[in-house]
Design brief:
two-stranded antiparallel ribbon, 41% helix, single chain, 9 strands, 5-stranded antiparallel beta sheet, Aminoglycoside 3'-phosphotransferase, Chain: A, domain 2, 366 residues, alpha+beta
Length: 366
C-alpha cells in the first residue's frame, strides 16, 4: 500500500471521447469534456476519472466512478454502482453528510463498457494512502488541536449518518442487513478472492470471531462501510466531502467505528515499521468511543470482536490487492500465503492476545 495500485487498463483518450459522446446525449450537442485524468493517490477498487464538463455556457468539475474491467483483476466480485449512487444521495440529503452531489447514474454498459455514475468534484485535502499520511504531510505535521479537530469531526460524520432517520424502504437495496449476513458475505468474498490459494491466517481469524460473537449486536443502521479519513476531503481540518460508498451496508454501528479505528492503526503500524513516529495519539479506541457516545448517547460495545473483524476484512482486501500485483508482474508470489496479508503481524498479535483470554463473549463497552 506504499505504491500506486493499478485499477484500469482503459485508454484515457478513448475514454474522454466516449464520455463526451455520452454527455452530449444527456445535456445537449454542445457538451465538451476536457482534462480527463485518473487520481494518483488514494483508491484501489472502482475506476475513478476526473474531468471538466462544459455545456450551455456552464462548467462543472466532475468525477466518474466505473466498475473495473474484468482484465484489471477487480478487487471485489461485483460493483453495485446504483446502490453507491443512491447511498451517497441519501447520506447527503437525509443525514446532512457532505457527500458529493450526485449528478447522473448510467446503467447501460454501452457508452463506456460498464455502468457508471457521475458526481460533482469536491475540493480539499485528503490524508493520502500513498505515501501514508502517517509518514508526514499536512495532517501528520498539524498541531495537536488541529489533529483533534479532524478526529472529532470524522467521528461526527459517523454519528450523523448512524442517527439519520432512514426508512426501511430507503435502505432496502443497500448491501447486507445485520451482523451475521455481513460476516457471511465477507467469508463468501474471501472464498471468491482467494480460492486459488487459501490463507490460513484469515481462516483462523474467521474461526476466532465465532468465540467472540456479541451476545446482543446493537441496532442496525446505515453504515458507510469504508469509514476512514483517507476517504474524506478536508478544508481547514473540517470534512467537506465523504467519498467511496461501495462498501455501504446495514448493520451495527461498530462496523464503521472499528474500521475507522483500525485503518488508522494500519497506517500507524506502517510508520513504526519505517522507524517514523507517525501519529500514535490519533484515533485511539477510547477517545473515538467517548466522542461517539457524547454525540449519540450510544455506548459502543464488543470492540474486541469488531477490532478483529476489521483487521480480517482489511486482510482479505489487501491480500487481493497483492494478488493483483502478482498478476501484473509487480511482485513475486510468496512462499507462505499468509505473507499476502500486509498486516499479518497485527492479526497474529490479536489472535495471540485472545487465546490468553477466557472464551466467553465480551460484554458491553469499548
Amino acid at each position: 500500500m506504499t505504491e500506486q495500485v493499478r485499477t484500469s487498463t482503459r485508454d484515457l483518450e478513448e475514454l474522454r471521447e466516449r464520455v463526451a459522446a455520452w454527455l452530449r446525449g444527456r445535456v445537449g450537442p454542445d457538451a465538451e469534456v476536457s482534462g480527463l485524468s485518473r487520481p494518483t493517490a488514494n483508491g484501489m477498487s472502482s475506476e475513478t476519472l476526473f474531468f471538466t464538463a462544459t455545456w450551455g455556457g456552464d462548467m462543472t468539475r466532475c468525477v466518474a466512478r466505473l466498475a473495473p474491467a474484468g482484465e484489471a483483476v477487480p478487487i471485489f466480485p461485483s460493483y453495485d454502482l446504483r446502490a453507491q449512487f443512491e447511498t451517497m444521495r441519501l447520506a447527503r440529503e437525509k443525514a446532512g453528510i457532505p457527500a458529493p452531489r450526485a449528478l447522473w447514474f448510467e446503467p447501460d454498459p454501452g457508452p463506456l463498457g460498464t455502468p457508471f455514475f457521475v458526481m460533482e468534484r469536491a475540493e480539499g485535502e485528503v490524508p493520502p494512502d500513498v505515501m501514508p499520511y502517517t509518514f508526514g504531510g499536512w495532517l501528520c505535521d498539524a498541531a495537536p488541536e488541529d489533529r483533534r479537530r479532524v478526529q472529532d469531526a470524522s467521528v461526527g460524520i459517523l454519528a450523523a449518518l448512524h442517527e439519520a432517520p432512514f426508512t426501511p424502504e430507503e435502505l432496502s437495496g443497500i448491501g447486507t442487513r445485520g451482523l451475521r449476513a455481513h460476516v457471511d458475505a465477507q467469508y463468501a468474498y474471501y472464498e471468491w478472492a482467494h480460492a486459488q490459494r487459501r490463507i490460513p491466517l484469515l481462516e483462523r481469524a474467521f474461526d476466532r470471531l465465532e468465540s467472540l460473537w456479541p451476545e446482543e449486536p446493537g441496532p442496525d443502521v446505515l453504515c458507510w462501510g469504508d469509514a476512514r479519513i483517507g476517504n474524506m476531503m478536508f478544508q481547514d481540518f473540517t470534512p467537506v466531502a465523504v467519498l467511496d460508498w461501495e462498501m455501504a451496508a446495514v448493520g451495527p454501528r461498530e462496523l464503521d467505528l472499528s474500521w475507522m479505528i483500525f485503518l488508522h492503526r494500519f497506517f500507524q503500524d506502517l510508520a513504526v515499521a519505517m522507524e517514523l513516529p507517525g501519529m500514535p495519539g490519533f484515533m485511539g479506541r477510547d477517545d473515538v468511543c467517548r466522542k461517539y457516545q457524547e454525540l449519540t448517547g450510544y455506548q459502543p460495545r464488543d470492540l474486541d470482536f469488531y477490532e478483529l473483524y476489521a483487521a480480517l476484512r482489511h486482510g482479505i482486501i489487501m491480500a487481493r490487492v497483492w494478488r493483483r500485483r502478482i498478476h501484473f508482474g509487480e511482485q513475486p508470489e510468496p512462499d507462505d500465503p499468509d505473507d499476502l496479508v500486509l498486516h499479518r503481524a497485527t492479526i497474529e498479535e490479536l489472535l495471540s492476545r485472545w487465546r490468553r483470554r477466557p472464551a466467553a463473549p465480551p460484554g458491553p463497552g469499548c
